[in-house]
Structure to design on (136 residues):
């Protein structure tokens, strides 16, 4: 009986650690230009939204939101986001906010190359669009 309980416990712990590996610990979307900034931070089951460094709102992340985010993250090759090319570079002359995306998953940090707030690399569009809908 003890062996069966031990096997069941080991199986449950193993399954929960596999599920945790697929989820993010932190997502940060940061867009800045002279005199203006937008920051979206998802961490510890909370989304916080900042405009010009002042907190404008907070949202508790439901299981549905976290599942949606994790599904979107699965479609992105995180190891390559630093190499993604932006379709435009208007941020170089203040034509758009300079934006980066930082994702922490399984203890690894992935940071995108810079891109225009209104024109991200196509691989990141679904995730960024979803993040922006969460703060509206």
């Amino acid at each position: 009986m003890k062996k069966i309980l031990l096997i069941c416990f080991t199986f449950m712990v193993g399954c929960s650690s596999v599920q945790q590996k697929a989820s993010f610990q932190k997502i940060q979307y940061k867009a800045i230009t002279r005199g203006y900034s937008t920051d979206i931070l998802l961490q510890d089951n909370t989304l916080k939204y900042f405009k010009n460094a002042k907190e404008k709102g907070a949202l508790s992340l439901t299981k549905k939101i976290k599942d949606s985010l994790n599904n979107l993250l699965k479609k992105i090759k995180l190891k390559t986001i630093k190499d993604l090319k932006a379709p435009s570079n208007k941020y170089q002359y203040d034509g758009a906010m300079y934006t980066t995306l930082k994702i922490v998953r399984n203890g690894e940090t992935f940071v995108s190359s810079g891109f225009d707030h209104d024109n991200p690399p196509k691989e990141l569009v679904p995730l960024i669009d979803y993040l922006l809908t969460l703060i509206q």
In short: The longest strand covers residues 24-33.
